[in-house]
Amino acid sequence: MALALFLISLVGGLFSGLLGIGGAVVLIPLMRAVPPPLGAGELTMGEIAGITMIQVLAASITGWLTHRRGGRAHTPTILAMGIPLACAAFAGAYWRPPEIHRHIVFGILVTLALGMLFGKSREERADPRDGDSADFAPNIPLAILLGGLVGLSSGIVGAGGGFILIPLMIRVLKVPIKIAVGSSLGIIFLGALMGVAGKIASTQVEWKYVLPVLLASVPASIVGAKLSAKVKPTYIRRALFTMVLLAFAHTWWDLLQHSSDTADAAGKQTKKINTPAATEEMERVPGK
């Protein structure tokens, strides 16, 4: 399992620094799909939520610091979205909903992100530019509201929320793409701090899995952030769209299979209850 998590975290960390995401949109589907074929066992959604929150914390801080040194982060936006996101992430992380509910929340998030990433941004329709962190003025009250909503939902599923933060910043707050990437990691870091605290407080972290995740995520995130500085904004959006599309397909396919298995189990139970032997047994019970 340690080797599987190390390899998965390399991929998550690279995309975290490159695209401004925590990495959970990649890690959650991979952690569900990869270990079983490798004979490493199967992780529950609760275990995955704890592991990914640790990975998100490590990848986001290293990626954000690298982007910040290159001038690709906007501090007012980070604070406006990050503080409410962090508080809401703690509440979401501490809550223990049923496995299927976590899965549904994640499915809704990737669906919303996919819709907002479809089509060119305003920045791409004009002359593509890297964007300066001081050349736009975000709507602070709206940023606070969006940060709180993203934090609550991301805390529940164990995601950093970058895959939904980037589309929201680009489409709603009109943040230039490369600034959105760097700022997103700063926001995710603040949220992940509280998210990790919530997971630890509610004993949802499997510590034996933490070391391979950290060893892979930190260096991979730094490499991804350095690559991001050289990539055109259009390619960043397309890469994020492709990643979210794959996560969308895997998540909803998984949910459909779960629904089908649940329906089959319910059908078998109904047939068992309605068998002649079961009926005869019921007739023997006094008062029936």
What's a quick, concise take on this entry?
This protein has 288 residues and is mostly helical.
Q: Whole-number average pLDDT?
A: 77
Beta content: under 5%
Distance between the termini: 52 Å
Q: Please bin the fraction of helical residues.
A: over 70%
Count of beta strands: 0
Number of domains: 1
Give the overall silhouette: globular
Stretches with pLDDT under 50, minimum 5 residues? 127-134
> Helix segment count?
12
The biggest sheet, with number of strands, parallel, antiparallel or mixed sense and barrel status, is: none
Structural class of the secondary structure composition?
mainly alpha
Using only CA atoms, what is the Rg? 21 Å
Order of helical and strand elements: HHHHHHHHHHHH
How does this model look, in words?
With 288 residues, the protein is mainly alpha-helical. The chain has one domain. It contains twelve helices and no strands. It has helices spanning 2-19, 24-33, 45-69, 75-94, 99-117, 122-125, 140-157, 162-171, 177-201, 210-228, 233-273, 276-284. Helix 3 packs parallel to helix 10 (210-228) and helix 7 runs antiparallel to helix 8. It is globular and about 80 Å long. Residues 127-134 have low confidence and may be disordered.
